[in-house]
Design goal:
The complex is a heterodimer of chains A (49) and B (738). Chain A is an all-alpha fold. Chain A is built from 2 helices and no strands. Chain B is of the alpha+beta class and 738 residues long. Chain B has 5 domains: 87 residues, Alpha-Beta Plaits, CATH 3.30.70.100; 244 residues, no CATH class; 93 residues, Calcium-transporting ATPase, cytoplasmic transduction domain A; 129 residues, HAD superfamily/HAD-like (Rossmann fold, 3-Layer(aba) Sandwich), CATH 3.40.50.1000; 98 residues, Calcium-transporting ATPase, cytoplasmic domain N, CATH 3.40.1110.10. Chain B has 24 helices and 28 strands. The chains are: A mainly alpha (49), B alpha+beta (738). The interface between A and B is medium-sized, with 23 and 26 residues.
Chain lengths: 49, 738
């Protein structure tokens, strides 16, 4: 059962990282234009001409 | 006379750059995004331009010294995307903030639910687990659950506290109580090394409920975004005249005592007094009256009327100084307070539910004590009853249906204003229609278009494009090819003429076109003549019924609804329309107060009614009726009091609204019964003391999923027919109705 001593904190840290990433993306406005994001991926104007 | 466009109202300034939001039409694909953004960014002084495809809005930041806001709009117009300056309403920004908060709570609850479930599953399945390990897992769950619940439970705790303070009871009270008791008991149980802790149930409950609430909110935000775009599309501009030059300003930027110029064909942008000029005005949007009113200096005119013949100058007066508007405002105050007494189905259910559940828990406690159980066991069982009856399914039963139903309405071209509108719409037994602009189209049309040779009508219509006269505007709507003839000149008071294929074509008064004066048989119709190369014709312009009015009215009757017309127009104008539609109960010449009196009389017969109207004179009646609908062409003051607004030229959204609302109500009731059945099964198990955390978790999630799936059935059934919304209206919608 000693394995729990580092498995449990690891699980929690991973979970918290995911939560933090989500909250960051929310604050960053990444959910403001869901339909637009799906279409912008199709445009090529970020490529070097 | 030079004319400039003043958009200062819409420009926000921060850190040396100006910012403006525009609602953009015709945005349909990925290419549009790039085209719009790149061409705006090429303009001098533009710092950034970003198009939000979801709500069809373009945010522009630029240096004001280099570029005027009007040039930005002109540039967009040039590449084929008409744009309308947009002022975000405070309600919309508040809702965006609230939504972000709900999603944050949802994320925290989701994170906690996943991690606690991981620990709980280990406890449930590890029967050979030692007491120390189990306690460790329980403490770990507590460590995650307590802060998570304190954060993610805020929407429920705040609402419950608000209700308790006003000595009310809503669904959030039993929810908050259940969550707090479950967590408190679990901590005590863990501290005393017991087997069962309910951390997972409490957090999962919050997670499910937050999902429901966030979806509900997202739907409401979407409809509000569309309503905002349509408001920007419809926004009126006024010609402000300050002695030397005429400035075009948005009607929202007008102040009392501003002097305005109202040209023929313009809508009067604000309430005011005529200073000079004489004209006739069409007040059908104000009073429902289709006959024109002659006005001169000193006359009071109201926002929404259309100036027909001469140019007027007017002075803006404070809103509501006219006798009609005074009456409307006074009636509105009374009607609005009557409406707010409506109690929503969910709250009615909560009022029945909470006492029953809390009494059951109390009896469980007493019963076990009398049966000789220890105080600890009795309390644990009683709390288990409260946890398992915590109204997860009940709290989702109604919002889940509402989300799906408002989505279905949205696709049918109906935009909901009020949160409880669906419930009220489903209860109606009578539909009261206004005539002008509701049963009939908001603008007059050529009534005898079918009797005129198509190519002659097309030439007349294209010539009419060059005139600003309202009668010509009606003719212009018949044009298939919307290209005006070159070199057309308008002769004030006479008509418009141009050289068409080498011969002169004239549109206007009969005498102007060389036809002898002719009497019209209908009193509310006007005639406009057209002559070209020896051919002449007389076009009869008048209010016509919406294209599908007859079918919709008979379908509504087939739904078992009583139909009534209450109109502000003269009785002689109402009778032919009523006869055509087969509505026997039609009353004309009603003042706003008489409309309300008629509605009150119907209410005393205990019939719930739906009022459909568009005029300012209908506003009090819309507010007083059990439920109300307005076409998108309605006056702003009226729309604000309607539960929902429908798009397009057709009347069928009214029928669709009633159908969807009724189906939604059936499903809401079914869902409530599902929740009751769930409780009827789960409560005896809990009373008997068998509600282990595993059973609680499965039962709760099972019932929540069941009601949500059932709610999805609102979408089943017949697909909504086409809405008839105009292309501009459709492209402004965040999601194209399919």
């Amino acid at each position: 059962m000693n394995v729990l001593i580092y498995l449990v904190p690891m699980a929690l840290v991973l979970g918290l990282t995911g939560l933090a990433a989500f909250l960051w993306s929310l604050r960053n406005g990444q959910y403001e234009d869901m339909d637009g994001a799906a279409l912008r991926v199709l445009s090529d104007d970020d490529l070097a001409q | 006379m030079a004319e400039t466009l003043d958009l200062a109202l819409f420009v926000q300034r921060r850190d040396g750059t100006a910012h403006m939001d525009l609602a953009v039409e015709n945005v349909t694909c990925a290419a549009c995004i790039r085209k719009i953004e790149s061409s705006v960014k090429r303009l001098p002084g533009v710092v950034d331009a970003r198009l939000n495809f979801t709500n069809r809005r373009l945010a522009i930041d630029w240096h004001e010294s280099d570029l005027a806001p009007a040039d930005l709009i002109a540039a967009l117009e040039d590449i084929g995307y008409p744009a309308h300056p947009f002022q975000p309403e405070r309600a919309e920004t508040q809702e965006a903030q609230h939504m972000r908060w709900l999603v944050k709570c949802l994320a925290v609850a989701g994170f906690a639910a996943m991690n606690i479930m991981l620990l709980s599953v280990s406890v449930w399945s590890g029967s050979d687990m030692g007491q120390e390990t189990r306690d460790f897992f329980h403490w770990l769950s507590a460590l995650i659950a307590l802060p998570a619940a304190a954060y993610a439970g805020q929407p429920f705790f705040q609402s419950a506290w608000g209700a308790i303070r006003t000595r009310q009871l809503n669904m959030d009270v039993p929810i908050s109580l259940g969550v707090i008791l479950a967590l408190g008991m679990s901590v005590v149980e863990t501290a005393t090394h017991q087997h069962h802790a309910y951390f997972d149930s409490a957090i999962m409950l919050l997670f499910f409920l937050l999902c429901g609430r966030a979806l509900d909110h997202a739907m409401r935000r979407k409809t509000r975004a569309v309503a905002g775009n349509l408001a920007a599309l419809k926004a009126e501009f006024a010609h402000r005249f300050d002695g030397s030059e005429v400035v075009r300003v948005p009607a929202a930027a007008l102040h009392t005592d501003d002097r305005l110029l109202v040209r023929p064909g313009d809508r009067v942008p604000a309430d005011g007094v005529v200073l000079s000029g004489t004209s006739e005005i069409d007040e059908s949007l104000v009073t429902g009256e289709t006959a024109l009113r002659a006005v001169g200096a000193g006359a009071l005119i109201h926002a929404g009327a259309v100036n027909v013949s001469g140019t007027l100058t007017m002075r803006v007066t404070a809103a509501g100084t006219g006798t009609l508007l005074d009456e409307v405002e006074r009636l509105l105050d009374k009607a609005v307070t009557a409406r707010s007494r409506y109690i929503r189905m969910a709250d009615r259910a909560a009022r029945l539910y909470a006492p029953v559940v809390h009494a059951t828990a109390a009896f469980t406690l007493l019963g076990w004590l009398l049966a000789g159980a220890t105080a600890h066991d009795s309390i644990v069982t009683a709390i288990a009853v409260l946890i398992i009856t915590c109204p997860c399914a009940l709290a989702l039963a109604i919002p889940s249906v509402q989300v799906v139903a408002s989505g279905a309405l949205f696709r049918a071209g109906v935009i909901l204003n009020a949160g409880d509108a669906i419930e009220r719409l489903s209860e109606i037994g009578t539909v009261v229609f206004d005539k002008t602009g509701t049963l009939t189209l908001p603008e007059p049309r050529v009534a005898n278009a079918a009797e005129i040779a198509p190519d002659l009508l097309e030439r007349a219509a294209r010539l009419a494009l060059s005139s600003r006269h309202p009668l010509a505007a009606a003719v212009a709507r018949e044009a298939r090819e919307r290209v005006p003839f070159e070199g057309a000149t308008e002769e004030p008071g006479q008509g418009v003429r141009a050289l068409i294929d080498g011969a002169e074509g004239r549109l206007g008064r009969a005498s102007f076109c060389g036809i002898g004066p002719r009497e019209l048989t209908e009193p509310d119709a006007s005639a406009i003549a057209f002559s070209h190369a020896g051919q002449t014709s007389l076009l009869v312009v008048r209010q016509t019924l919406r294209p599908d009015a007859t079918e919709t009215v008979s379908a509504l009757r087939a739904c078992g609804l009583d139909l009534i017309i209450l109109s502000g127009d003269r009785a002689e104008a109402v009778a032919p329309i009523a006869a055509k539609l087969g509505i026997t109960d039609a009353r004309g010449g009603l003042k706003p107060a008489e409309k309300i009196a008629a509605i009150e009389a119907l209410r005393t017969e205990r019939r719930c009614m739906l009022m459909v109207g568009d005029g300012i004179n209908d506003a009090p009646a819309l507010a007083a009726a059990h439920a109300s609908l307005s076409p998108i062409s309605a006056a702003d003051r009226t729309q604000a009091h309607a539960d929902a607004v429908f798009l397009g030229e057709r009347l069928s959204p009214v029928l669709e609204t009633v159908r969807i609302a009724r189906r939604a109500r059936r499903l809401m009731q079914q869902n409530l019964w599902l929740a009751v059945i769930y409780n009827a099964i789960a409560v005896p198990v809990a009373i008997a003391g068998y509600a282990t955390p595993l059973i609680a978790a499965t039962a709760m999630s099972g019932s929540s999923i069941l009601v949500t799936l059932n709610a999805l059935r609102v979408r089943a059934g017949k697909r909504a027919v086409g809405t008839g919304a105009s292309p501009a209206e459709i492209t402004l919608l965040p999601v194209n109705p399919s």
